[in-house]
Amino acid sequence: MWKFPRAFWTANAVELFERAAYYAMFIAVTLYLTNTVGFSDFDAAMISGAFSAGLYLLPSFAGAVADSIGFRRAIILAFGLLTLGYLSLGLLPYKLIVIPSLMVVMVGGSFVKPVISGTVAKSTNTEMRARAFSIFYGIVNVGAFTGKLIAYPLRVTLGLESINLFAAAMTGIALVVVALFYREVERSGGGKKLGEVWRALLAVLRKPRLTALILIVAGFWIIQQQMYATMPKYVLRVVGNHASPEWIANVNPLVVVGCVVLVTNLMKKVKALTSMTVGMALMPLSALCMAGGHWLQVAVGPSVALPGGFSVHPVTLMLIVGIVIQGFAECFISPRYLEFFSLQAPKGEEGTYLGFGYLYSFVSSLLGFGISGYLLSWYCPDPRTLAAEQIPSAYADAHVLWYYFAVIGCLSAVALVLYGFVVRRLDEKSLTGGGA
């Protein structure tokens, strides 16, 4: 069962390094842009959101380039760019340098997903493919977990710049591994051209069903993005610099990995849209739990006793509870979203349309980070902009920002229910000849 070709294991090994690098950097990116580089909360959020959005939009186009120049050249280019970008972020934390450096990382990262997943697919046969991608999915989560695990001690001992240097080291190792061991995989067909990818994107955007679905599901991911957009600054400012947002965020992959198979099996006889609606309904509760840390602190004080003699700050505890609910909600949504998305695509064109099934992350990155920057500056401002005596009153209503995300979650859940009703009515009319 473990007999896969060298290309498969090489691809998985470098994916482990790349994910560790990315998540270590990304969990701290808004902190780095504000605390080290000197951007405001809003500017840091917009830069981070544009960076994240690009990483979700560009892979389809990068995949077309990779098909043209070959996977080996593309993956060497990717890790070369990633190493250069991360290294410059670590060594040159200046406003004029940071944005171009993030663009270099964004372009390099956009090649990784299509080339690595393409290698996994092309280096295995049909019988082994499901097992191969389960291994790949596990490697992705191990890398993401490890990166955030290491980011916390690096931040508190060596500073935020050291996280980018760690990321550069990880992608540098991956570059060496690729150069020594990665061989071009056999590829049949010429792949898609850039023009074809662009036309496919426009075709998706011209389909009201698909565009509406993308925008509605983006509401879920706007809240999910707060693990990277809002939570790190919120917990450090409200709880203190000893807090560990990197480790708090790691609760999410633990929940997803532990529950996704169970939830998928429980919901396998339920329609995809129903499963997604359950997940969407959980998201407002997640945001309310995060706001609830304030009220728990008012009720019990600055510490909550846990079994085993441990204690935790009430805000930290409720953030963890909220992220657990988010992870559980993701188990209802993510496995079924692409299934439902494909059913809304024209028959015979599902593959073309699924290439842009993740446009919701593009939308949620721009909106989620942008909203976060505005709310942080209003309810939980940078302490360096405040006098010491102003901080208690400035943070008195910090928890209110989570109510905005709860409202977004409620509106998204209602919109999904209405979407399902409209789609069913249109399908019924189509079957009876009453409409398209």
What does this protein structure show overall?
By secondary structure, the chain is mostly helical. It folds into two domains: 1-181, Growth Hormone, Chain: A; 202-436, MFS general substrate transporter like domains (Growth Hormone, Chain: A, Up-down Bundle), CATH 1.20.1250.20. Helices cover 79% and strands 1% of the residues. It contains 20 helices and two strands. It has helices at residues 6-27, 29-37, 41-57, 59-69, 71-91, 95-122, 126-158, 160-181, 194-205, 208-224, 226-229, 231-238, 245-249, 251-266, 272-300, 314-344, 350-354, 359-379, 391-394, 401-431; strands at residues 304-306, 310-312. A hairpin with a 3-residue loop joins strand 1 and strand 2. 47% of the residues are buried. The mean pLDDT is 91.
List the total number of helices.
20
**CATH-level-2 architecture of the largest domain:** Up-down Bundle
Q: Roughly how many Å apart are the termini?
A: 48 Å
What would CATH call the class of the largest domain?
A: Mainly Alpha
Q: What is CATH's topology name of the largest domain?
A: Growth Hormone, Chain: A
**What's the story with the biggest beta sheet?**
2 strands, antiparallel
Assembly category: single chain
Q: Extract low-pLDDT stretches.
A: none
* Arrangement of strands in the largest sheet: 1-2
Beta strand count? 2
Tell me, what's the shape?
globular
**Helix and strand run:** HHHHHHHHHHHHHHHEEHHHHH
- Would you identify the CATH H-level superfamily of the largest domain? MFS general substrate transporter like domains
Q: What fraction of residues sit in β-strands?
A: under 5%
Structural class: mainly alpha
Radius of gyration (CA) equals 22 Å
**Structural domains: how many:** 2
Mean pLDDT, to the nearest integer, reads: 91
Helical content stands at: over 70%
